[in-house]
């Protein structure tokens, strides 16, 4: 090979190196020049057939060309690596002046109903109550008959009930109108003493600012040999103080009527209405919050408990209602509208678990 041919080959390789757009293209040039079957490697292989004088002269020329190509390859590799790094840094740039995105635990919200449900459970658990649950679809027997609602009794009309179509045997299932059937199931499956609360969904055909077709109730039941209204009054007073987070409450117990309790009572709590807000434990106003009474002997008998040995008391309140009172929610229907703005305003952070020691709503 003449010197001009070697110079041309060297220039062609250097041009290819300079034109390589990435490291893969550069590697292809290197293999084509210095690989086992590369053009410069092929020239070096011919040195063995040359005379010593030719080998000395031609070998120096070929090795000089090899060195230039090697240096060019290294220099171009550095350029390409730096360019690739610059490109990656540009694509992965973070604008540190932007606000940090909140985590799901910060942006998510617990619905006020779920929060109040947990608050109520926490308070009664501290008093030694366990939680009992039952099905939403109930029998007429558990929802009415065993609770001292005789067939055709006008008290059944107090509950605007969702009934299913009758079965071939005439039985008609329904969506429970209260969580009292859970009390019935508990008395049928457990022996006294009994101390439970029964939170859950209930259903009635009603809809306005303070009523929805599906709502939530919590009922309490205590059955024992020595249970009396004094115990009931203490439990309700302690609950109201803990739930509304006030030091003292004044309550009024008024005679009422419920088929499943005798005597039956409605409970009013002292409050002060001021500028659209209700504050408990102060003022000269009164607000009804729940119904209660001593469990009717007929209910005890229907559930297999001897009323001559055991007696008990029960109470019930709307979870939705007390949530509205505590947190200033004006319309019950808003709780079921899935409005993100509403839940952001009234909701609670997921890690704000209610505790009596730390504060239920802190």
Walk me through what this model shows.
This protein has 362 residues and is α+β, with helices and mostly antiparallel strands. The protein has 2 domains: 3-91; 109-346, Bira Bifunctional Protein, Domain 2 (BirA Bifunctional Protein, domain 2, 2-Layer Sandwich), CATH 3.30.930.10. 41% of the residues lie in helices and 20% in strands. The protein is built from 12 helices and 10 strands. It has helices at residues 3-19, 23-34, 39-45, 52-91, 104-107, 112-126, 140-143, 180-189, 229-244, 297-302, 319-327, 340-346, and strands at residues 130-131, 137-139, 173-175, 194-203, 214-224, 251-258, 261-274, 277-280, 285-295, 311-318. Strands 1, 4, 5, 6, 7, 8, 9 and 10 form an 8-stranded mixed sheet that branches. β7 and β8 (277-280) form a beta hairpin. α1 packs parallel to α4, α2 (23-34) runs antiparallel to α4 (52-91) and α6 (112-126) crosses α11 (319-327). The chain is rod-shaped, with a radius of gyration of 42 Å. The model has no long low-confidence stretch (mean pLDDT 85).
Overall geometry comes to: rod-shaped
Q: What count of helical segments does DSSP give?
A: 12
Instruction: Report the radius of gyration as a whole number of Å.
Output: 42 Å
Helix content: 40-55%
In CATH terms, the superfamily of the largest domain is Bira Bifunctional Protein, Domain 2
Low-confidence stretches: none
What is the name of the CATH topology of the largest domain? BirA Bifunctional Protein, domain 2
Mean pLDDT: 85
**Domains, number:** 2
Please describe the biggest sheet, giving its number of strands, its sense, and whether it closes into a barrel: 8 strands, mixed
Structural class: alpha+beta
CATH class of the largest domain: Alpha Beta
Could you give the count of β-strands? 10
- Give helix and strand order, one letter per element, not per position: HHHHHHEEHEHEEHEEEEHEHH
Percentage of residues in strands: 15-25%
The second-level CATH architecture of the largest domain is: 2-Layer Sandwich
Distance between the termini: 90 Å
